[in-house]
Amino acid sequence: MIIYILFMKKSKMIILSFDSLSGEDFEFMKTLPAFAEFFENAAICTNVSSVYPSLTYPAHASIVTGKHPEEHGIIDNTLFQPNRMESPDWFWQRKFIKAETIYDLAIEKGMKVGAFLWPTTGKSKIQYNVPEVLPNRFWDNQIFASLRNGSPLFQLELLRHFGHILDGIKQPALDDFVTECVIHTIKTKAPEMILAHFTDLDTARHKFGVFSEEAYEAIRRLERRFDKMVGMLRATSLPSIIILGDHAQIDVKKEIDLNKILTNAVAKSCGGSAYIYVKPEFEAETEKQLKQIDGVEWILPKPFGFMAEAVEGVTFNHSLKADHGYHPDKPRYKTFFAAAGPEIKKRTIEQMSLVDIAPFIAEVMGLKFHV
């Protein structure tokens, strides 16, 4: 993937991740004024491959490292904890990423970074950090979990100004809160890099379906938020801005609970795929069982067992109208990328991968990965 850079200088960068944004959303997005204006001078790709499994946390780690999950270590959203299968810990903290990140490079260069619900940034060096974390212990709550893992004084400042917007962690209020936090931080802290994660669309697609009216309304809300953020910047010199997705979704027609079928293995669902944890003596038996399941497309050997891939329209989760986690080469399953700014030339990119994004950001911002 090549994106032409017109000239090199240290540029500010805003990275907006719209969770579950599909490449197929581009035609609809072009009908919305704020997006249409942005796309006029953008480098655009509607054929972006996610990573495998195509989950939010592995994908976002790949976006900031330029590496695949097996390299950076975020192989799932949640840890494998057999005794906490109903409420496992997630890969919330920066310590889990076994690679350099683009925001660490920025901080090393003396830049300020703001992050808003960006996965796997808990307890990182980000100066203005509202991490994505959840309280999954009976003695914990959302405020304390967030304060422990992020920038406490900064978060209290944001809650004082915008806490009234929140309705717990429900959408669309949560993305509205993030929008106001981004605007406030740009105005008052002037960071060189912003990383913001919006999950309104992901929630709508899981609940109502990929091309549901509710999903389109979520895209309309994203456009209004984008317009509000960019509108605030128009009075100044615009930074480089990236809009991207982490994965698409596929409508669900059938659900399979692998743990009700496998006799001597544990399946950990990734939605359209699943990790199969099994002892060596039961591998042959488990492989045979998996191959007999109507809805398992293929299996891959892994150091700890297998990776099972669902056929299109099948999920290993439950109670969802649409899901993700599938292999990125599934039909109509590409995500999206668009970038515009002083150093970025307008063009159409035929194809790219999430792992191409971090090197691009580094080039625009004058940063360099050590390895």
TrEMBL record:
<keyword id="KW-0378">Hydrolase</keyword>
<protein>
    <submittedName>
        <fullName>Alkaline phosphodiesterase I / Nucleotide pyrophosphatase</fullName>
        <ecNumber>3.1.4.1</ecNumber>
        <ecNumber>3.6.1.9</ecNumber>
    </submittedName>
</protein>
<dbReference type="GO" id="GO:0047429">
    <property type="term" value="F:nucleoside triphosphate diphosphatase activity"/>
</dbReference>
<dbReference type="InterPro" id="IPR017850">
    <property type="entry name" value="Alkaline_phosphatase_core_sf"/>
</dbReference>
<dbReference type="Pfam" id="PF01663">
    <property type="entry name" value="Phosphodiest"/>
</dbReference>
<dbReference type="GO" id="GO:0004528">
    <property type="term" value="F:phosphodiesterase I activity"/>
</dbReference>
<dbReference type="InterPro" id="IPR002591">
    <property type="entry name" value="Phosphodiest/P_Trfase"/>
</dbReference>
